[in-house]
Write a structure and sequence with these properties.
The protein is of the alpha/beta class. Helices cover 31% and strands 24% of the residues. The protein folds into two domains: 103 residues, Enolase-like, domain 1 (2-Layer Sandwich); 199 residues, Enolase-like C-terminal domain (TIM Barrel). The protein contains twelve helices and 14 strands. The strands form three sheets. An eight-stranded parallel β-sheet has the order 5-6-7-8-9-10-11-12. A three-stranded antiparallel β-sheet has the order 1-2-3. A three-stranded antiparallel β-sheet has the order 4-14-13, with no helix packed on it. Helix 6 links the parallel strand 5 and strand 6.
């Protein structure tokens, strides 16, 4: 007999984390626990307002499946019962973890994925005054990959400050839907000169038809425009990469299928995250060996993390402890 429990938790952020559409000082996550035969599986998700999700709605979705989950619903059934999103992610990851704990077999082996290894991850520089962003970049100049959050206000000035602070790092930028095609074209030369390696979701989702035939010199990566396998067809000719986040795909099960489909369609992969604890990073990290860009630094933005957290050494993310997840 299974038992399901779910709760919302608030985790303080170290300072303020600002992107183009919001600034936050704490992160609310939802944690699912499924117990069966003395084994406990856990999953964590981030209800995201951009996708009309709240912790109350997410908990209600989870509660609505209590009978099915406690009655033995498996991951395939979960995918049919619940739409992609935060609630399904937490449940799906908890079911993976439960199976691993019950069988003594790690999730990567159950899923047929490569064995976890240390991987290079991006470190995010949030939007701030140019001087502050430059100082943050200088303090993290030892990291090989920096992700720079930008908006429509003085993006090149901010980016120049970051580049001055960290002259050797590979840079990716994320305007979070705040740019236009005209801005992309206006800033093209400066972005190339500053060595930007990739631009994530420059235009608002649903308005990126302007990218068709643009032939931009820097790879563009779909984030808000991309959720699951059904999203792929509309991205051809607009984006070179897609950002897989488990809170969008609705868990590791769909994320694995998405990764296979995206690669088969010619897209390179980015594996990203919402700002969350190590419990949310652990399942996503299993996809890291398949990705050209890994952005799983969420716990580094928090004032504290879970017990047995993932270790970050310089710009490297170590494999998660199986006691934490998987």
């Amino acid at each position: 007999m299974r038992r399901l429990a779910a709760r919302a938790e608030s985790w303080p952020i170290a300072g303020t984390f600002r992107i183009s559409r919001s600034a936050i000082t704490e992160r609310t996550v939802v944690v699912v626990e499924i117990e069966q035969d003395g084994a406990h599986g856990r999953g964590e998700c981030v209800p995201y307002p951009r996708y009309d999700e709240t912790s109350d709605r997410t908990l209600a979705e989870i509660e609505g499946l209590r009978g099915a989950i406690e009655g033995g619903l498996d991951r395939a059934g979960l995918g049919r019962a619940l739409k992609p999103g935060a609630a399904r992610n937490a449940l799906d990851c908890a079911l993976w973890d439960l199976e691993a704990k019950r069988t003594g077999t790690p999730v990567w082996r159950l899923a047929g994925l490569p064995a976890p290894r240390p991987v290079e991850t991006a470190y995010t520089i949030a939007i701030d005054a140019p001087a502050a962003m430059g100082a943050k970049a200088a303090a993290n100049a030892h990291r090989p990959l920096l992700k720079v959050k930008l908006d429509a206000e003085a993006p090149i000035e901010r980016l120049r400050a970051v580049r001055a602070g960290s002259p050797e790092a590979r840079l990716v930028v994320d305007p979070n839907e705040s740019w236009t095609v005209a801005m992309l074209c206006l800033h093209e030369r400066a972005l190339v000169e500053l060595g930007v390696a990739m631009i994530e979701q420059p235009l608002h989702a649903g308005e990126d038809n302007g990218l068709s035939g643009l032939n931009y010199p820097i790879p563009l990566c779909a984030d808000e425009s991309f959720h699951d396998r059904a999203s792929l067809a509309g991205l051809k000719g607009r984006y070179a990469m897609v950002n897989i986040k488990l809170d969008k795909t609705g868990g590791l099960t769909e994320a694995i299928a998405v990764a296979e489909a995206a690669r088969a369609a010619g897209f390179e992969l980015m594996v990203g995250c919402m700002l969350a604890t190590s419990l949310a990073m652990a399942p996503a990290a299993l996809l890291a060996p398949l990705a050209a860009v890994v952005d799983l630094d969420g716990p580094l933005m928090l004032a504290r993390d879970r017990d047995l957290p993932i270790r970050y050494v310089g710009g490297t993310m170590e494999p998660a402890s199986p006691v934490l997840w998987g």
